[in-house]
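Chain and backbone:
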Amino acid sequence: MAEGNGCKIDEVCARRGLPTLPDRLVRRRTEDDDSLRDLERFFNRELLAAAMRAAGMELLDAGAANVYRLLTDEDVSEAARTEARDRLSRAGVDVAALRTDFVTYGTVRTHLRECAGVDTARESTPVDAGSVTDTVFELFGRTEAVTERELSRLAGTPALETGDLSVTLTARVTCESCGEEYRLLHLLERGECACAGTESQT
């Protein structure tokens, strides 16, 4: 599918000068049987590595993979995430734009099926706490990046006068039955709300 037809992967690769990356995705799927989530991480790491090289940053072994982990993993402290963002920004990498260009496994699946003609039906994505966490926090990451970018634009006008801003989204979930409130990640790790304890006593 051509760039004008709306394929995000083709558009991003064309804009960032990565013409062989779409074909590499196809080979890793068809020859190495990489999962869609493996391909998501591979694509985003390659995107990050290209941005770091373009900024003149030195890439040591697994350097881009580690920076990607710092930017996206939920178990990374906010201080470590901010330090990684700041290091990239100081080198000239537009972190917000980069995060916006990152893809999800759903985007990879659509690209493989509709642009490359690769059958992805053999892989079903299980619904479990891990897949929900990946999906939700990927959305959080993209929303944070877009929000930071828009605030940065607004900061150049009289409407907003601030220093450098960093956006962090959090989610809290309330059970309508027991009334207990939890951080989303804590609830998913716990695997139950207070209702479970109540039911076991009945």
